[in-house]
Structure prediction request, 576 residues.
Amino acid sequence: MSDDLRDLYQEVILDHNRRPRNFGPLPDANRTAEGHNPLCGDRVVVQLQVEDGRVQGISFQGTGCAISTASASLMTEALRGKTVEEAHALFHVFHELLTRGGGDPEQLGKLAVFSGVREFPIRVKCATLAWHTLEAALQQKDQPVSTE
Amino acid sequence: MALAAVVSRSDQADAHSSPSLAPGYDLARVRADFPILAQPIHGHPLVYLDNAATTQKPRAVLDAFASVYETSYANVGRGVHTLTQRVTEAYESARGTVQRFLGAARPEEIVFVRGTTEALNLVAQSWGRQNVGAGDEILITALEHHSNILPWQMLCAERGARLRVAPIDDRGTVILEELERLLSERTRLVAVAHVSNSLGTILPVREIAELAHARGAVVLVDGAQGAPHMEVDVQELGCDFYAFSGHKVYGPSGIGALWGRSDLLAEMPPWQGGGGMVVRVTYEKTTYLPPPHRFEAGTPFIEGAVALAAALDYLSGIGRSAIAAWEGELLALATERLAEIPGVRLIGTSPHKAAVISFVLEGVHPHDVGTILDQEGIAVRAGHHCAQPVMERFGVPATSRASFGLYNAPEEVEALAAGLRKVQEIFG
Prediction:
């Protein structure tokens, strides 16, 4: 396997693809948004329970590639308990990681496993679909978001 | 007796040797005609299996472009100087090449367009607006590319007509009885693919045309995937319109052709206004040229048309039935190899298929398949293939698709199979 591939499909990503965490409907959700990637037909629904500006509950549903599924799964783990501001900030750092590389490892935590995506520019959208959908949910946009 | 024994022994030898693909097909020579193929991708030889999306170009097409620019470029159908005469001749001669390629009766029945999509939109907006009214119906099938859905959906919305869809079975074959049942005296048009881009199914166009004509409907064939893979004779198919794209038949992108029966074209109004399409213009009234120039407003893609003709000549030079036979062997081999891999499900298993194989790999999304294969130098398509309703019909969000062309080799089928096993290794 090439190094680029090994960096892309790290064990943590494959594991979250096989066994996505926080997958399914969120009974106490008060924010829901749907995201599409028209390039590949991927679809994700992100549900949030936001109380006092803090993400108390988060889940996702949908179908997608390993990168988008693992990204959604790891996102739900990273955001539980975070404030809305912290969530926005983390997306910013995550996006920098995917497009420019680098970023604060402490802030990124497990999300650092997506560093290999930078070598596959066409897959950046896969890794950010759940995050764009999250943003839509936080802003309570009515329209489904799209990566295009 | 002696002769019979010899024949029978050679039969046996053939049966036991490794696949003897289409004897006499000079693959090495064909491959040498395509400069792009001789390059490594990620350190591996390029294995280009995305021919249903677009095809690579032979040197003859490259040379045709250069030749127009170097010797005869000017505008067509205008003026009297030498270059314009020369290029007009080349452009109109290209029309004749397309006519022969499609088995059409006359060159005037060939309209140059940007591609299949533009051809279908031309028919929808010119013929459609004139012939489809409130309460009328347009019938398509459940395996169409978005290009053969949306122009009709738009037309139906505009005219208050109804779009109907003939279903397919689990193999991806159009259910003819259902199609026949959906035909009515309100059916104005039946628009079908010649070959499905996502499933590979070859449609029984002749039978469909007969059924449709019995109800007085006009028949349009989206030949984008038909023209590259088989002999096309529009008169034998019995359709009324046939459209194809240059870039899928080893020619340039941005050029294609619409064939229409001359009596239909003659009655159709222009759909775009501009230069090169008129007899006389006054502010009060304009009279238009007859087909095909009536439908070619503005300066066309002149050099594209000439290069398209070069591509069609190239195909004829190899022989379209030889190409079809070769691709048929590749399809059979690929179907066999993929079936041997546990967890592979073929989407589209019609007994009549062109060399297009859609599949899903259990537990692995097509995008991941595509990325890993690309690292092996193998180009396949991953996605919904502009056929989202087809994906829905088979309950998959997307598929991987390997589609073969005249330059593909049996070794490339083996590379694909090996690549898929590698995907499975990575995903465990």
Remarks:
- The helical segments of chain A are 3-8, 11-18, 66-79, 84-99, 105-108, 124-139.
- The interface with chain B takes residues 1-2, 4-5, 8-9, 14, 18, 39-43, 63-67, 69, 120, 123, 126 of chain A (CB under 8 Å).
- Residues 31 and 140 of chain A are 7 Å apart (CA to CA).
